[in-house]
């Protein structure tokens, strides 16, 4: 069985966690697409967004709005891409729900039309960077 990165980081200090409530925490992404790129993660091991009940969805939404306020104060973005990679085929690398919040800034992409369909070229596949920057995490990402 693989170890779970998102379960383990909750019990460690200095893991870029900057906000939390009773059910979720927010941390800055280790491989940010843009400044302020973060993720909202359930404290309880949850694989899919569809595993959350209505109450948890509501708590997550309220927390998302709180995180947005913090991002606006610190980074002054012009917009956001928000999403979940639901399943390995959709690009998820950890079988643990994490809502991506990617601030966008005027001029960071030549043509932002299509939004999340394009994201930012060459920023999606970070596996090589993971091995170089965090070799101690290899146990979380089997080949």
Could you explain the architecture of this structure?
The structure is a single chain. The protein is of the alpha+beta class. The protein has one domain (5-140): HIT family, subunit A (2-Layer Sandwich). The chain has helices spanning 5-9, 54-75, 127-133; strands at 17-20, 24-28, 38-42, 79-83, 99-104. The longest helix is centred in the middle third of the chain and has 22 residues, at 54-75. The two termini are 14 Å apart.
Query: Structural class given helices, strands, pairing?
Result: alpha+beta
Radius of gyration: 15 Å
SSE arrangement, N to C: HEEEHEEH
Question: Helical percent range?
Answer: 10-25%
Question: Tally of extended strands?
Answer: 5
Shape: globular
Strand percentage, roughly? 15-25%
Oligomer: single chain
Overall pLDDT score = 88
CATH topology: HIT family, subunit A
Largest sheet strand order: 1-2-3-5-4
